[in-house]
Amino acid sequence: MSRIIIIVVLCSILTVQAKFPDDSKPCNYEDKQCIVELFNKLFIDKVVQIDPLKVAKMHLKQGVENPVRFDLIFKDNALIGLSKIRFTEVKGFAKDFAQKHELSINVKNLQMLGPYIAKGTLILLPVSGTGESNVTLDNTQMQITFTGNPFEKNGETYMDISNLELTVKPGRIYYHFTNLFNGDKLLGDNVNAFLNDNWELIFRQVEESFRSALKKIIEAIIKNVFTKYPYAKFFAE
Ligand SMILES: *[C@@H]1O[C@H](CO)[C@@H](O)[C@H](O)[C@H]1NC(C)=O
After folding, report:
1. Which residues form the signal peptide (predicted)?
2. What would the pLDDT profile of 108-140 be if each residue is shown by its tens digit?
3. 21-40 tens-digit pLDDT
4. C-alpha of 160 from chain center
5. Do residues 221 and 166 make contact, with C-beta atoms less than 8 angstroms apart?
6. Distance, CA 176 to ligand 1 centroid (Å)?
7. Is the CB of 49 under 6 A from ligand 1?
8. Which H or E run contains 67?
9. Can you count the helices (H) and strands (E) in the chain?
């Protein structure tokens, strides 16, 4: 059904620390409050280097059911702010983890900075340009679900993940694109103002492809942490 093409290439793939941080006390299985606190420690640059995250290429397309084409390509961008993610709720994480897990996350400020190429028509407005962009998402709520899949490595059991689904609700988005229309200042200023005045409507046009792109990033982060340490390491026995 969907013919959206999503390309996300992460270049500097996350480095995960070799040692499990000693001051992170393992939790009892299914102990939501403890797991929330543990994840907030683990995912905040302590264990996984995610800030800034280099995104070699992200390609967003307007919703497929829309006859008007719009393409937005970000190349060699930096995604800044993922180290400030806050887990607010978890579900799952039982001893038997071959089941569905849920994570609720808040990201205060997420900035995507770097070169862009835009071409097409966005809500009846022709938009084209090549320059630098700043897309900033404030106060974003994310809901993540995935299935845990056990695998064995050196006699220990690790969790791989599959079927990751993600919903993204930004509280506000700020857009700034330099050099729109070959640097025509008046047109460029007008389009930037239009984008910011209609941030939510614009987001809905590219939401599906943005969500797929972010899904790949989030999946890589979660996979990196859980395939690095045995599952039991996160929990008290
Ligand atoms: C990007 O835009 C946001 C929101 O306008 C702003 O707060 C931030 O300073 C900008 N970042 C850079 C690097 O210009």
Report:
1. 1-18
2. 999 999 999 999 988 778 889 999 999 999 999
3. 777 778 999 999 999 998 88
4. 18
5. no
6. 8
7. no
8. none
9. 3, 8
